[in-house]
Amino acid sequence: MVAPESVMAASEWFALAPPIVLILTALLLLTVDAIRPDEPSNGLFAGISAAGALVALAFSVWYLVAGEAVNGGAVTFFRDAIVVDGMALFFTAIFASVAAMVVVASFNYLEDVDNTAEFYSLVLFATSGMALMAVSNSLATVFVSLELASLPSYALVAFLKSDKGSIEAGTKYFLIGAVSSAIFAFGISLVYAATGSLLLTEVAAGLADVDGLAGVAGIGIVMVLAGFAFKTASVPFHFWAPEAYEGAPAPVSAFLSSASKAAGFVVAFRVFVEAFPLATAVAINVDWALAFAILAVLTMTVGNFAAAVQENVKRMLAYSSVGHAGYALIGLAALSAGGPHNADVMGAAMAHLLVYGFMNTGAFLFVAMVEYWGVGRTYDDYAGLARKAPMASVAMTVFMFSLAGLPPFGGFFSKYFLFAGAIQNGFVYLAAVGAVNSALSLYFYSRVVKALWIDDPTGSSLDAVSSRPTGIYAALMFAAVATVLLLPGIGPVIETAQAVAAVLFA
Amino acid sequence: MLEALLAVTFLAAFVVLLSPDEYAGKLAFVLSLIPLVGSLLLWQAFDAAGNALTDGTLAFETQAAWLEFAGYEIQWFVGLDGISLPLVVLTTFLTTLSIVSAWTPIDERQSQFYGLMLFMEANLLGVFVALDFFLWFVFWEAVLLPMYFLIGVWGGPRRKYAAIKFFVYTNVASLVMFIGYMALVFSLPVETFGLPETTAAIAAGQIDPILGLAPSTLLTAAFVAMFFGFAVKVPVVPLHTWLPDAHVEAPTPVSVMLAGVLLKMGTYALLRFNFTMLPEQASALAVPIAIIAVLSVIYGAMLALAQQDLKRIVAYSSVSSMGYVILGLVAFTEYGLGGATFQMIAHGLISGLMFMAVGVVYNATHTRMVTDMSGMADRMPIAVWILVAGAFAYMGLPLMAGFAGEFFIFVGSFGSPAAAGLMPVFTAVAMFGIVIVAGYLLFAMQKTLFGPYRLEADYDVGRAPVHDVLPLAALLAAIIVLGVVPDLFFEMIRDAVMPLVENGGGL
What we know:
The structure holds two protein chains of two kinds. By secondary structure, chain A is mainly α. In chain A, a hairpin with a 4-residue loop joins strand 1 (about 75) and strand 2. Chain A is globular. Chain A has helices at about 10-15, 15-35, 40-65, 85-110, 115-135, 140-155, 165-195, 200-210, 215-230, 240-245, 250-275, 280-285, 290-310, 315-335, 340-375, 380, 385-390, 390-405, 410-425, 430-455, 470-485, 490-505, and strands spanning about 75, 80-85. Mean pLDDT of chain A is about 90; it is low at about 1-5. In chain B, helix 6 (about 145-155) runs antiparallel to helix 7 (about 160-185), helix 13 runs antiparallel to helix 14 and helix 15 runs antiparallel to helix 17 (about 380-395). In chain B, strands 1-2 form a two-stranded antiparallel ribbon. Chain B has helices at about 1-20, 20-45, 85-100, 110-130, 135-140, 145-155, 160-185, 195-205, 215-235, 240-250, 250-275, 280-285, 285-305, 310-330, 335-365, 375-380, 380-395, 400-415, 425-450, 465-485, 485-505, and strands at about 60-70, 70-80. Chain B has one domain. At the A-B interface, helix 18, helix 19, helix 20 and helix 22 of A face strand 1, helix 5, helix 6 and helix 7 of B. Chain B: It is found in: Membrane. Chain B: This is NADH-quinone oxidoreductase subunit M. Chain B: Its main location: membrane. Chain B: It is a multi-pass membrane protein.
């Protein structure tokens, strides 16, 4: 409830509009379904969900552009347990965009499935959980919102009840998720024991004079770090991700690998910078930036090499999304205590996550469309697809080259800024490993392009490519246009990202 | 102005991509006339003095902030000077002609083909007008993508191999060049990627050591990295092996664009980056560069001499011709630099003509082997006579563009003090290349075109359709006009290269 000492102006509550809108939309879906349970309303549900996600997106962008949050004018609620600042709004915009694309695409994917209202509401509940993760300013709210985002995700992965792969993936995801939550919760409790608080700023203060409990705090921080590594699918805690992404319905894979991963990062950014300031952490021998550097190098390398040997496109995308987690980790790994370009690096990581939200979602949605047609999942199955679906193949080509970081698309600048920021902050080796991995990734991304455009069709499987699933097409084109426009339009994105990151380091 | 040119071309590409296959070719031709006319209007209204990178006045300049990262400013910065304008005109001219020349051979997925051609044109224009490194690099890399598809989808039997080889070679080269340029910029105090600002800062010697490298070492390393990156694109021996594969597999119109414009990206960038920004390093490394140039001329010509495939002959002779351009650049004199730039245009037109003419013959005969053909002159007289005229232009017959270009280069390099006074020797050796060119071209013409007709074909080999011959005639006309009145371009080129010569390059 509202803290008595802070009678808040109604206008300040607008800052929380995005998560509130998402939650209300999810509830509305369930209500509509309860009122008319027997009517097939797939289209209606998809429309409501997309509208809700877009309204949340509009609120977050509007509030971000209005500018106060960017300039440090953060709004806090519930005795600082929740803070709406620029970074929270920036990430909420990512979650809402991805959710909008995913629900629109799911409209076709779920044509023959029951209980669609539940599916959409699960997506929106998960999205609102992510939006709350972005505004969490206390380890307690972090944990609660993390669970709010995770529980619907487990159900979503296993949503295709008749598909053994889906069930297996959901079970695995659930078990791993539960274990990581336990580790995370245990880490929080150790940090609480050492510092006496859960609020991030107070944790930082407590950490500064932790005295005899430095060891406890240190172990706590490492366990929290492990919890994040699970959530963001960083090596060596990544092994669940390819299984879950492959087994899940493709729109859900898109949702998890883009939005859920970004949610993990927003919490990691805030918690590590605010609660465990690097200078203080190093003083008690917990150099988490070094730990993240090791994770980043491992994640990039393992993810990309594993992606390179896949024959299945969906699995390749799953591993490559592990690799991209490695790039984003540079945002934490290339920080140094008092480093001159800390905000630049973290801002670049945020911008990369935004671009990634479009290009990776789009890539998985293309897989969803191919699954919808029943063509298959291997490179060979994709052969010659461009002849049947040229515009969709153009979109997929855009995603592939953008993920690889080639210049005409958004992924080029976001990767460049990430690596340049690392170099400027003195971490040349991180940029070098990232650049080599990017060069390698071109190999497996361009294999998809080659299959689509250049290879000749192998069998008769392409005959199925006749219908045009409008929902998936619309979402795909939206993602492709966004990916292209993010190259000329990267200016405001990167500047906003750096400004909101600078607030953390102020 | 330039924004409008780029926007129209991108839009045209998109419209053609969405159009039905039956109309795509004609529509692409009509739409490509807009940038062509636009570039001619630019030429007509052109008014610039000096070199874009060394404080010259620019024509049609736009400079606007685009974005900023960590204090570094990236701008939308475009403009034209006497070096870039001829290349812009060449690009629009050749694109329109190669679109027409595609009507006969391209018979599947037309809207995609013509859409990619126009998309490539737009990015090529971008390369030649951009004056901010990032903007330029975006266009530079974006040219690769349509080329990859154009070879990979519409190419010959080994198209997949050729497309991937092309992509890997040029992409790796770009990466090396990118790293070299970044090292250069990060060691300068200017916080911008504008090419003029960077050039000025280097000229003022404002370089700081980074990563423990002394400024002189750093500059040399950057020069070598960039030279490598551009040399692959040119290409010079021994980095040329992707070129014959790409050319032989590519369909005719794509070969025209590849030889006519894409290779010029390499020499244009060499002139802009290596020789304009780092003249001292260019002069210090003049001997090895001149050796590479001469090697390309002679070795390329010898390779051409050994081919039996007409298209391969033309492809290898491109290696040879581009060697002349490098020789002109390294001479670093008014006529050397000016001739090199002029030769880029001349070679663009002549090689375009040769590839197109070989394509016309191939459309009719379904073979390109010198040993299979004989007496084509009787069957398709007009196309063949234009082919012969093109071959003469290649050999450097006076009053044709090739003669003007090569003559300027030889004048410039023979009298050049570069390379420790060895330039006359290098020039003399390179001139010997002309003899070999004349040899293999005459030999090939003799065997294929004249003598008794003996092609055993179960199809009719007859005159080429009008729309195949017209682009050839247009190219030949342009070659002759430029050969007779080289000042159409040479004057503005000279204005643009003179500041470079005056800066001296340490000569």
